[in-house]
Each structure stands twice: as structure tokens, then as C-alpha cells.
Write a structure and sequence with these properties.
Layout lengths: L5 E4 L8 H7 L4 H8 L7 E4 L2 E4 L6 H9 L9 E3 L15 E3 L8 E5 L4 E5 L21 E5 L7
Parallel strand pairs: 1-2, 3-4, 7-8
Antiparallel strand pairs: 5-6, 6-7
Length: 153
């Protein structure tokens, strides 16, 4: 199979998550690595630059790949909501708020960097423990529950 060659220029498009592109085109992680051609001299260039990206847990896998495999420039020019460059965001800051089945008066946050789903119910005026929690996004993710400062518990 010939190695890919070309330039995909999506600069300035209203793309929110980089992974939306690959899901839309049905390209998985392995196919992306092949397209990036990171093992050999890269011949396929991507220009995804723009300032409409949301830097959260949705693209965590890509940010982690870029941080640990420095020969790719796929995130060059990508800005998080017009602010800082995506490649400068620490992996620990890539989080997602979850609303589905999050107990009322609580905040639920998925943190892929440490594989935890935090359920913050501190000082939420709870009188009993919630019966329902958000589903874990991956099988290896664990809950971190905080029910502190609830006087009625």
C-alpha cells in the first residue's frame, strides 16, 4: 500500500472537537496513525488550525498521543475557544461535565487523566445518598464520591 500524500486544510472551520472529523469520516485511531505517517517521514499534512475548538475530555486520546509522540503537528494552530493553544493544555485539565444521571445539587466530572468520574455532592444539603449515578464512560474508570458537609446524612 502506498503511503498517503497530501494536505488536508480545514483551517478556520467551526470544528468543536478534532475527533468529530474522524468520527464523521469513520476513521479510527489506527487509521489516523497511518494517515499521520508518524513512523516514517510524514507526507500527509493536516491543518486544523482555528479557535472554535473545545478542549475537554472528548479529544483526550488525541492530546495524549500528541504529547507523547512529538513527531506529529496535527494540533498546530488549534486554539481552545480562541484562548491558548491546545498543545499547551495539560492533560489533567481535559475534563468533561456530565449531566446524565448526575444527582441533583451535585456536579459530575469525568477526568480521563486519572481515570475517575468525580461526583461532587459536598454541601449539597442531601438527606440520603443518591440511588443513581452517571454511568462510567470506560470499564477501567472508577468513581470518586464526595458527600462531605451534608448535615442531614
Amino acid at each position: 500500500m502506498k503511503r498517503p500524500f497530501g494536505l488536508l486544510d480545514l483551517f478556520g472551520n467551526q470544528i468543536v472537537h478534532v475527533s468529530d472529523i474522524f468520527q464523521g469520516w469513520n476513521i479510527g485511531h489506527i487509521e489516523l496513525v497511518c494517515l499521520l505517517n508518524v513512523v516514517h517521514n510524514p507526507r500527509m499534512d493536516f491543518n486544523l488550525g482555528g479557535d472554535s475548538y473545545v478542549c475537554d475530555c472528548m479529544d483526550y486520546w488525541l492530546y495524549k498521543f500528541v504529547k507523547f509522540y512529538l513527531r506529529t503537528e496535527i494540533l498546530d494552530g488549534v486554539r481552545c475557544g480562541g484562548q491558548r493553544y491546545a498543545i499547551s493544555v495539560p492533560l489533567t485539565e481535559l475534563i468533561c461535565d456530565l449531566a446524565d444521571r448526575c444527582p441533583s445539587s451535585c456536579q459530575c466530572v469525568y477526568r480521563p487523566a486519572n481515570a475517575t468520574l468525580h461526583v461532587y455532592c459536598s454541601a449539597a444539603n442531601l438527606s440520603s445518598l443518591p440511588l443513581d449515578l452517571p454511568p462510567l464512560p470506560k470499564s477501567y474508570v472508577r468513581y470518586k464520591l464526595d458527600f462531605s458537609s451534608n448535615k442531614l446524612l
